Amino acid sequence: MKIAHWYKDYFESRISGRYVFLDTIYPLLNDYKLNFELTVVGHSELGEDIPMLKIGNGKKIVLGWSQMHGNESTTTKAIFDFIKFINQKDYFQSEINQFLKDYSFYVLPMLNPDGARNYTRHNANNIDLNRDAQTLSQRESQILRRVVDAVKPSLCLNLHDQRSIYGFKNGKPATVSFLSPAANKNRTLTEARIVAMRHIVAINKTLQTYIPGQVGRYDDSFNPACVGDTFQMEGIPTILFEAGHTKQDYQREKTREYIFYALLSVFDIVGPKASTVTHAAYFDIPENLKNYKDLILRNVKLDQYNKPVSVAIQYREVLKDDRINFEPYIDEIGSLKNYFGYIEKNVNGAEILTNLQGNLTVGENITKIRDKSNESIIFFHKNNSFLN
What start-end ranges are recorded for coiled-coil regions in this protein (predicted)? Predict the structure, then answer.
C-alpha cells in the first residue's frame, strides 16, 4: 500500500475544519493514552489543560507543539493523523516499529488552548506566544520552556499555519513553507541550523511528489523574541512548519495531508533521511512572496479610475456560533499585475456594484458584486460558498 492510499482511507476523520479547541481533541487523547503516555504539563492563563503525549521510547528525542497561535489548527489535525498512523497495526509495521524504537516524540498538540477556544492568534492576555521566548511572561511560554529543559530535545518542530497570501513568481501558491530560523543577526550557519536545513531539504524532496513547486521557505531575519530563533541560539535544531493554502481548501483538509507527509519525513518513515542530503539545497527552495489574493476581478470599470483596474477580495475568519465564517471584504484596488488569485475572473470592462453601492471602499465587507448595467450578471456572491 502506498502512503497516500493509507491516508485517503484512514486519516483521523474525527477532527476536521478550522475550529479546533481543547474539547475537540480530548476524546482523541483519551483514546490514544491507552497506548501512549499522556500527561498534563501545565495550565493556560485561564486554567485550561495543556496536554502532552509521548510516543516511542528511542534515544532520538523530538519535541513538537501546535496551536501556539490558537487560530492555526491545521498542524494539530496533522498531528492526530500521524498519531493514528503510528497507533494502527495493519500497515507499515516495520517502519512504525523502527520509529518507536529510534524516537521519543513528545508533542503538545495545543499549546494555547485559550486562543484556540476564542479562535485568536494571541493567548488570553493578548500576547503572541511566539514573541515571548525571552521574557517568558505567560504561563504557556513558561510551560514550553520547562518541557524543553526537561526532555532535552535533539530536534524541535514549531508547527503553524500561514495565511493564503503567499506564493511564488511563477504563480504557484506556497501551500507548505518551512524555515530554519537564524541563531544570530549574521544568520550564521550554525550546526543546529544546518541540522534543521537538512530535515527541510528531505521534507521538500518528499513533498515535491504531491505538490510540485508549492513548497516555500521564509525569510530568516533574526528575532530573538521568537521561539525558533531562541532555541537555535541555544543549539537546539528547530524547524518552523507553516501550513498554507491550495485551491479552495479553506478548511485546510488537503494541507493537513501534506503536513502529515512532512512529519513522516522527519521521522525517516518516508523519503530520504536528513543525514543523506546536503543542507545547501535548502537555499534552492524558493522564498515566499506576498503575491496572492483569495479572489481577483480583472478589467473592472470604476468611476474613480480612468482605466480598467483589478479588485482583490480577501476573507476574514470570524468565529460565530462555534463555526468559522469566512467574511469577504475588498482588500485592494489597482493594477495588481504582480498578484495572483486562487480564483480570477475577467469582467471585460464591466462597471460593477458592491452591496448596491457604486463606489468601492478598501476594507468594506461585501455580500455581492454584480454588473451595474445587468443585475442578472453576478460576479461574486458570498452565499455561493466554496469554502465549506
Answer: none
262 and 272: one domain? yes
All three cell numbers of 377, joined, read 450578471
Question: Does the pLDDT of residue 386 top 70, yes or no?
Answer: no
CATH at residue 308: 2.30.40
Contacts of residue 75, defined as CB under 8 A and 6 or more positions apart, other chains included, come to: 66, 67, 159, 160, 161, 241, 243, 256, 259
Q: How does pLDDT run across 70-98, given as a tens digit for each residue? A: 999 999 999 999 999 999 999 999 999 99
Q: What is the pLDDT of residue 387?
A: 45
Residues 203 and 326 in one domain: no
User: Has residue 386 been placed in a domain?
Assistant: no
Q: Which residues contact 214 (CB under 8 A, 6 or more apart)?
A: 172, 173, 174, 175, 176, 207, 246
Strand order in the sheet with 352-354: 352-354, 368-371, 374-381
pTM of the shown model = 0.97
Amino acid found at 356 = L
Range of the domain at 300: 292-381
Q: Calculate the CA 169 to chain-centre distance.
A: 21
Same domain, 366 and 347: yes
- Torsion over CA: 113, 68, 174, 1 (sign): negative
Q: Does residue 181 share a domain with residue 59?
A: yes
215-217 and 176-179 strand pairing: parallel
Q: Which residues contact 153 (CB under 8 A, 6 or more apart)?
A: 61, 62, 63, 106, 236
Residue 134, domain CATH: 3.40.630.10
Pairing between β-strand 176-179 and β-strand 238-243 as defined by DSSP bridges:
antiparallel
Distance (Å, rounded) from C-alpha 129 to C-alpha 119? Answer: 14
- Over residues 276-303, the pLDDT tens digits come to 999 999 999 999 999 999 999 999 999 8
Residue with cell 512548519: 241
Which helix (H) or strand (E) covers residue 222, if one does?
none
Q: Are 368 and 297 in contact (CB under 8 A)?
A: no
Examine the fold and report which residue of 272, 290, 308 is the final residue of a domain before the chain moves on. 290
The span from the first CA to the last CA of the chain, in angstroms, equals 30
Q: 40 phi and psi, to 5 degrees? A: -105, 110
> Does residue 279 lie within any of the structural domains?
yes
